[in-house]
């Protein structure tokens, strides 16, 4: 009789140990999964923060550029044709509130639609300042020309002039 009680007690003790091991493995697995999810969450938050900062900088740059483009204003003050050679001199005045940079001048013969384009690198004009540029091209007497000045922010200012 005492031996049966000892066997039953030992059997119950063995079952208790098996249940404890199973329960412990569930807890360890849950802890590993929870840790992995937490690490992935931190990585996603870090990536999204970096991505947001990058897009915010791009948006700030675009907004600033467009705001300055609205405040850009230029007056093509005087255009004259050289009698000593095939060239035209253009004087521009910055009447806007921000500085601008002349990057190109396009001269189109209105009668024949022939076009001459000139690129510029050092065409900066401060607000209230002037800039004179000499463009060398063969012009025709008594012909209308359309002069288009392009700035670094892609603003275009046009005027028409009649050659002497």
How would you sum up this structure in a few lines?
With 164 residues, the protein is α+β, with helices and mostly antiparallel strands. The protein contains 1 helix and 8 strands.
Structural summary, described in words:
The longest helix has 69 residues, at 2-70. The protein is built from 1 helix and 8 strands; from the N terminus they run αββββββββ. The protein starts with a helix and ends with a strand. Helices cover 42% and strands 34% of the residues. It has 164 residues and is of the alpha+beta class. Residues 1-16 have low confidence and may be disordered. Strands 3, 4, 5, 7 and 8 form a 5-stranded antiparallel β-sheet that branches. It has a 3-stranded antiparallel β-sheet with strand order 1-2-6, with no helix packed on it.
């Amino acid at each position: 009789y005492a031996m049966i009680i000892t066997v039953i007690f030992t059997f119950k003790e063995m079952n208790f140990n098996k249940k404890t091991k199973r329960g412990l493995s569930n807890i360890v697995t849950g802890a590993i999964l929870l840790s992995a999810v937490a690490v992935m969450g931190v990585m996603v938050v870090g990536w999204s923060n970096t991505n947001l900062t990058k897009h915010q900088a791009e948006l700030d740059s675009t907004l600033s550029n467009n705001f300055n483009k609205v405040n850009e204003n230029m007056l093509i003050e005087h255009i004259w044709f050289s009698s000593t050679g095939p060239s035209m001199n253009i004087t521009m005045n910055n009447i806007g509130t921000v500085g601008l940079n002349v990057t190109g001048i396009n001269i189109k013969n209105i009668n024949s639609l022939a076009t001459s384009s000139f690129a510029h690198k050092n065409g900066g004009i401060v607000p209230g300042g002037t800039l004179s540029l000499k463009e060398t091209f063969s012009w025709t007497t008594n012909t209308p020309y359309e002069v288009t000045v392009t700035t670094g922010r892609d603003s275009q200012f046009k005027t028409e002039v009649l050659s002497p």
